[in-house]
Amino acid sequence: QGRMWAYTVGFTVLPHVGGFLGWFMNRKEIPVWYEKLKKPSWCPSRKIFPVAWTVLYTGMGYASYLIWNDLGGCSSKAVVPLGLYGAQLALNWAWPPFFFGARNMKLALIDILCLDGLAIGTMCSWYRINKVAALLLVPYLGWLAMATCLTIRIWKDNPEQKPGKSE
């Protein structure tokens, strides 16, 4: 029983690790670069993002624990559902370094579009295993839809400077 508690916490905390590292590595770029970008009126306040991601990462982490537990751990049945989850989580963690670190909006856009597909695939594969786990991803998919639209708008409204041109 004590061991299951540790697994529950571990799976629930895991998504936060990459999210925190992404924030930590790019925290200086946000006030310097991001604040100066042209953003749509419906762009959430900067203060909303850490709250939203804390809730979303907690939900998706716990959901991954439910899937892992229902499939008996790292069994052959878990390869696809947890593989999809791991792949989408890697793309989720890659977005901030692409967008803020490299300031490469096109690469960030490609990343988030692939992330959207993998997140939807994850939810679909989880639905047959554990409906609660799949439903825990619904707020995440909603936030990703907004984040994708926001990434598209920022990319379109802020043409990237070509190397050698003055700012």
UniProtKB/TrEMBL annotation:
One of its GO terms (cellular component) is mitochondrial outer membrane. Keywords: Membrane, Transmembrane, Transmembrane helix. The chain crosses the membrane at residues 6-26, 47-66, 78-95, 107-129, 135-155. The keyword ATP-binding does not apply. It is a multi-pass membrane protein. It is found in: Membrane. InterPro entries: TspO/MBR-related_sf, TspO_MBR. The keyword Transmembrane helix applies. Belongs to the TspO/BZRP family. This is TSPO protein.
